[in-house]
From TrEMBL:
InterPro entries: FHA_dom (IPR000253), SMAD_FHA_dom_sf (IPR008984). The lineage of its organism: Bacteria, Pseudomonadati, Planctomycetota, Planctomycetia, Planctomycetales. It comes from Caulifigura coniformis. Residues 303-322 are annotated as: Disordered. Residues 27-77 form the FHA domain. This is FHA domain protein.
Amino acid sequence: MSQYLILDAIRGPLEGQSFSIPLGSSLTIGRLPECGIPITQDPTVSRQQCRIEFPGPDAQLVHLSVTSDTLVNRSPATRTELRGGDTIELGTGNLFKVRMDDSAAPPSPRPAASPMKPAGGGHYTMTAASCGWSLYQFPGGIQTPQQLLDLLGKSATVRAIVDFRKTGVQPTEIDPAWAPLFSWLSVDQQLQFSPMIVKSSGVSAELLQSAWGKDALVSVGSTLDDAEFMEHWQAISGVENGQPGKALSIFHWPSLLRLVLTCQQPDRMNPVLSKLSWIAVEDSEAPAQLSLFAPSTFSDELGKRGFSPSSTSATVVSPGKD
């Protein structure tokens, strides 16, 4: 099995450079300076254009931009498997060629196992997100909702915002552990249209399982009480005085919230994040791949859960040939 995926830049401002992605890692290509491969001077490249995932043995390109295409072998890609010899084109004339290599760079030493770490840990990658927090991802995947609870439940009070319309399981009554986000609607309308804020007592593995992989659930950690959390989430969603404001933000859909957190700047996101400890969303294009947004210091909490860091950024290596 190849230990490194290499992107050779064969056209564009990075021409002549090659970027090595270790097995089990991923990186983003885009205009933001913090991207693994930053293309900062091309305005036709989105802030985050695409992400290369190399969990092994296969690699994939995930298209992220909503304004321009990413081409794999000259065809627009959404989520596409990558093989040696494939070409990736983005923006204005930026062209990369994929290469697989077992010896591009020495693998990072793996930390020694510690008997103090709880069982079930693994590795995580940490990259800076434009919102000011860090994006944590887990190359092996979070395989079950119970793992999500086990990972995050001890760091802060866990709540979930669930859109039951997208789960395919329409409730017939409002559970005592639920609080309708759209509180101005009648009860019947709330059951049909309102996302539900699920209190910590109601966040179960069964609930997570029902919404897993359906772009229907956002998990949030905070130290707020139930009333404070409802007030905060309504405020950031655009609710004013218990009524819909001029515009409602759909922060209860993981795909949209993830896009906001990876595109907006800290000054825009501070009102959202200031009262929260972390936000976890499932990658809607990669079921069981968890995107965890939290301050960079959250790595200490992950260490307590038995997780250790793996390489996240591309390593620049000398150009090579197929």
